[in-house]
Automatic annotation (TrEMBL):
InterPro entries: Bact_Lucif_Oxidored (IPR050766), CmoO-like (IPR019949), Luciferase-like_dom (IPR011251), Luciferase-like_sf (IPR036661). Pfam families: Bac_luciferase. It comes from the Bacteria. This is LLM class flavin-dependent oxidoreductase. To bacterial alkanal monooxygenase alpha and beta chains. NCBIfam families: oxido_grp_1. It comes from Fredinandcohnia quinoae. One of its GO terms (cellular component) is cytosol.
Length: 334
């Protein structure tokens, strides 16, 4: 089984944004040492507690601090940007770091309505036009605009020998069908979806149209997981993230991910307690053996080629330890 890392660059309530971003660099380095296939960092805008608004900047820095792990964005929020500029950015990265760059593409706003308006005009129109934007981006990446197209002779320079690998991220049949139609690899965000993932993946696999000969469908499932030496410890480190999600859902402005002791002291209403229990059912919490079994079950259930894991804890040490234990159990088969 292949495992990868999705990093949302969380800021704990005892950290600065700079400290959180440096922890992201450290996580990528540790992921490389442990044998994770890829490290992706997410894009968010003016969301308290999340530090990365410019993944392309972080990827240039992280690429220089690592050697072989694939790195990319999960995801470039394409409706905010022109496909040509996105292609230039990721071609630049692919030129600097050959055979290592992924470009994950998404349609979410990644922030508040105010941030969306500040970033781009007519965001909803751009979402509506997403299929055309994806096609244009792929044409720029592959340099294969059809004869007579206005951009036929335009290059997203520098043009690398090995182009960035495009992935489409989503949580719905619509995104799955868009990926399949364009012969793209697909990432299903199970950690943020209420939809029937199995059905969506099956739709993708059945509808896949190769862009060129030899192209095959590829599937990554992204899940939230917390691993510790014992199940009790794993539940403790997960609690900080769960309570933080409840706080954000209520619109409470927090300084970041609360500590375990603060999370334990947080007063939940009966409705919030039910919400917390429902969240637990969607994520993986356990000791190494438990997590290993659940990951293999998930891979079988979704016919996934790879599992991408997002883990948010208050302590960076707990986050790294979780990834270490999972790697030991799954990648090293201990």
């Amino acid at each position: 089984m292949k495992l990868s890392i999705l990093d949302q660059a969380p800021i704990s309530n005892n950290q600065t944004a700079q400290e959180a971003l440096f922890e992201s660099v450290k996580l990528a380095q540790v992921g490389e040492e442990l044998g994770y296939t890829r490290y992706w960092i997410a894009e968010h805008h003016d969301l308290p507690g999340l530090a990365c608004s410019a993944p392309e900047v972080m990827l240039g820095y992280i690429g220089s601090k690592t050697n072989q792990i694939r790195i990319g964005c999960g995801a470039v929020l394409l409706p905010h940007y022109k496909p040509y500029k996105v292609a230039e950015l990721y071609n630049m990265l692919a030129t600097l770091f050959p055979n290592r760059i992924d470009i994950g593409i998404g349609r979410a706003p990644g922030g508040s309505a105010e941030a969306t308006n500040a970033l781009s005009n007519n965001f909803l129109q751009h979402v509506w036009d997403m299929p055309n934007s994806v096609k244009d981006l792929l044409h720029f990446i592959h340099k294969d605009f059809p004869e007579g197209h206005e951009f036929q002779h335009l290059t997203a320079a520098p043009y690398p020998d090995n182009h960035p690998a495009p992935w489409l991220l989503g949580t719905s049949k619509k995104s799955a069908l868009l990926a399949a139609e364009n012969g793209m690899a697909y990432v299903f965000g199970q950690f943020m979806s209420e939809n029937n993932g199995e059905e969506i993946i099956q739709q993708y696999l059945k509808s896949f149209k190769p862009r060129k000969e030899g192209d095959k469908p590829r599937v990554i499932i992204t899940i939230t997981a917390f691993c510790a030496e014992t199940i009790e410890e794993a539940e403790e480190i997960a609690l900080s993230s769960l309570i933080w999600n409840i706080q954000r859902g209520k619109g409470e402005v927090t300084k970041g991910v609360p500590s375990i002791s603060e999370a334990k002291q947080y007063q939940l209403t009966e409705k919030e307690y039910d919400t917390l229990e429902k969240m637990k059912h969607k994520i993986i919490i356990g000791n190494p053996e438990t997590v290993k079994i659940k990951l293999h079950d998930l891979q079988t259930q979704y016919h996934a080629d790879e599992i991408m894991i997002v883990t948010i804890t208050h302590s960076p040490k707990d986050r790294i330890k979780s990834y270490e234990l999972i790697a030991d159990a799954v990648l090293r088969q201990i």
